[in-house]
């Protein structure tokens, strides 16, 4: 798997994807060793879940999520994000964002092109969320 060619053709976006990758590894230092699932529990905060959706050589598509139980019994994403992680390039990028009210897919444009608005929103959120998760002490291990 390769990072999105057009979006990451810009140096600023490549630098951003590298920063996100480094922040992701703070929260998930064992990313490349986790088989299918990992969970982090920190008192006073919602549990953090990681699901490996695709595991290929040098690539992971993962889902990071917080969920809470609604009074109806449904589990509500708050948020649930899919992230593409590229080991050889040391980059990571948001692919989807979902919460109770919305679902955004980054590569939803014509021919699988990135939607600029979703790309900016999802990656900005992901970077800040990873910073907050690290500050809260979340750590996902194999």
Summary keywords:
33% strand; 6 strands; six-stranded antiparallel beta sheet; alpha+beta; 142 residues; globular
Summarize the structure in words.
- There is one protein chain.
- This protein is an alpha+beta fold and 142 residues long.
- The protein is built from two helices and six strands; from the N terminus they run αββββββα.
- Strands 1-2-3-4-5-6 form a six-stranded antiparallel β-sheet.
- The chain has one domain (7-136).
- Helix 1 packs parallel to helix 2 (116-136).
- The mean pLDDT is 91.
- It is globular and about 45 Å long.
- Helices cover 27% and strands 33% of the residues.
Helix content: 25-40%
How many E-type strands? Answer: 6
The shape, in one word, is globular
- Cα-based radius of gyration, to the nearest Å: 15 Å
Class computed from helices, strands and strand pairing = alpha+beta
Contiguous low-pLDDT stretches (5 residues minimum) are none
Sketch the topology as an H/E string, one letter per element.
HEEEEEEH
Q: Report strand %.
A: 25-35%
Q: Averaged pLDDT, please?
A: 91
Domains, number: 1
* Physical arrangement of strands within the biggest beta sheet: 1-2-3-4-5-6
| C-alpha end-to-end distance | 23 Å
Largest beta sheet, briefly?
Answer: 6 strands, antiparallel
Q: Count of helical segments?
A: 2
